Amino acid sequence: MLSQVPRSRMYVAAAVAAVVLVSVAVVLIVRNPSGPANAGADSTVAAAPSSTATPSEKESESSESEESEPGKPSGDNRAVGLKAEATSAPGVTARLARIDSVQATASLPGEIGGPALAITVKVKNQTGKKLDLALGVVNAYYGPERTPAVSVASDGEVPFPASVADGESAKGVYVFQIPEEGRPVRVELDLGNGADVVVFKGRPQR
Predict the structure, then answer these.
(1) Rounded to 5 degrees, what angle do the CA atoms 194, 195, 197 make?
(2) How far apart are CA 63 and CA 61, in angstroms?
(3) Fewer CB within 10 Å: N-end or C-end of the chain?
(4) Is the pLDDT of residue 13 over 50?
(5) In contact, 188 and 74? CB cutoff 8 Å
(6) How many helices (H) and strands (E) does the chain have?
(7) For all residues of the chain together, what is the average pLDDT?
(8) CA torsion, points 30, 32, 33, 35, in degrees to nearest 10?
(9) Which helix (H) or strand (E) holds 29?
(10) Is residue 136 within 8 Å of residue 198, measured between CB atoms?
(11) CB proximity list for 86: less than 8 A, separation 6 or greater
(12) Terminal Cα-to-Cα distance of the chain (whole angstroms)
């Protein structure tokens, strides 16, 4: 007849067996790095967004970086001298008819009096139809840093007329506060409606 094993010894044996099983399981997991834990890590990396922009994103970033900042002059690709004639659209030419040094008197908020240039811009229409000038804008810059010149609209400015007939020319006079030591100057004309911005630059004669 078998002698009975004390219960305390049975409990000890069961505990030892459990510890052995746990140890074996840990060893197997460490030796198998492709287990469930690593599989979860791999899925997280795959779900992360790519740092490489798609072609459409690259085009968008490129177009944004090439755009001129507000208040900054455009490029020099179409720049001509102050006495030259420039073409802004088929059949539309422009030139600076006069550049006069004047002493401007400021009377509106934001204007600055003192040495200024009164620039007369002449636009000729040979398009075969009436040319809209209502959106025409003239800007000026001066010095090597191309500092935006402040318009003195209250002292002698005469904007373009609303339109000019085919075969005719129209003039506008624009006054800008530009210190004498700030020259050379740069004048930009934008007639709107898809026309090219034309740029005149040089040192006006005193």
Answers:
(1) 120
(2) 6
(3) N
(4) yes
(5) yes
(6) 3, 12
(7) 74
(8) -110
(9) helix 7-31
(10) no
(11) 78, 80, 93, 94, 95, 189, 198, 199, 200
(12) 132
Token code pair at residue 127? 């398009």
The answer, as to whether pTM is greater than 0.85, is no
DSSP state of 48: S
What single letter denotes the amino acid at residue 198? V
Query: How far apart, in whole angstroms, are the C-alpha atoms of residue 15 and residue 19?
Result: 6
Which segment of 13-27, 55-69, 99-113, 146-160 scores lowest on mean pLDDT?
55-69
6-10, 64-68, 154-158: least confidently modelled range: 64-68
Q: Dig out the tokens for 112 from the structure.
A: 């600055």
Q: Which two tokens stand for residue 128?
A: 């075969």
Taking Cα atoms as reference points, which of 101, 94, 127 lies closest to residue 204?
101
